[in-house]
Amino acid sequence: MKTHKKLTSLFLLITLSVMALMLSACSKPALDVLPADAVILAFGDSLTVGVGATPNESYPSTLANLTGLTTINSGVSGEKTNEGLKRLPSALNETQPDLVILIEGGNDILQQRPHDSIKKNLSEMIKLIHNRNIPLILLGIPEKKFLSSSASFYEELAQEHELIFEGTIKSRLLKSPSMKSDHIHLNAAGYKQLAEEIYDLMSQHGAL
User: Fold this and answer.
1) 192: how many CB neighbours lie within 10 A of its CB?
2) Crossing angle, helix 152-161 and helix 115-130, to 10 degrees?
3) Which of 20, 111, 138, 202 has its CA 20 to 30 A from that of 82?
């Protein structure tokens, strides 16, 4: 009798564990497969522009080569999140993208703007994109500290809005002298690596 109860308890435990794993997998953000005529909007600041390399070596250009898809470089050097929030609606109207890659907030962090303000602006940008039913990939920017990982509010945003998120790429690349042109920008090799990691992220989540 005791053995039967133990087996029943074990069976229930295994069943619950499997169900938890299945629910976890189902809740993981996913992307629809992008069609051959899809448009990707790379929205951000100087990291999107590709400062530190030639235009053809920017991450959007490299990503376009990797995916074979139209990838629009909508980067503005020096842009802060409040400025990006104002610019985003027109960029979405003009490009009608099927996917947005958002890398923004670095200039706010460098200027030591309040994190609550940065998070609020980014949250409003995310809502603008989601209200148009456009999928989004968010990349985190490191805090203004030596060898720091991305600021904590990026992961908070990813959880709150159920986003596909990568918070370590920029910090990892900046730790490698061979990947950067200065203390905040990448070089051609760095942007190539950034594009390849975004490509892998898109593939892992079903876009490619």
Assistant:
1) 21
2) 30
3) 202
Per-residue pLDDT averaged across 178-198, rounded? 95
The CA–CA distances, whole Å, from 208 to 15, 64, 89, 95, 178 equal 33, 12, 26, 20, 29
pLDDT digits (tens, 9 = 90+) for 30-51: 899 999 999 999 999 999 999 9
Look at residue 25 and tell me whether its pLDDT is greater than 90.
no
Q: How distant, in Å, are the alpha carbons of 11, 12, 93 from that of 42?
A: 48, 47, 14
- CATH at 114: 3.40.50.1110
Number of structural domains, the chain? 1
16 inside domain:
no
* Tens-place pLDDT, residues 153-163: 999 999 999 99
- pTM of the predicted model as reported, rounded to 2 decimal places: 0.85
Task: Find, among 51, 38, 37, 39, the residue nearest to 79 by Cα.
Answer: 51
Decide if 165 is inside a domain.
Answer: yes
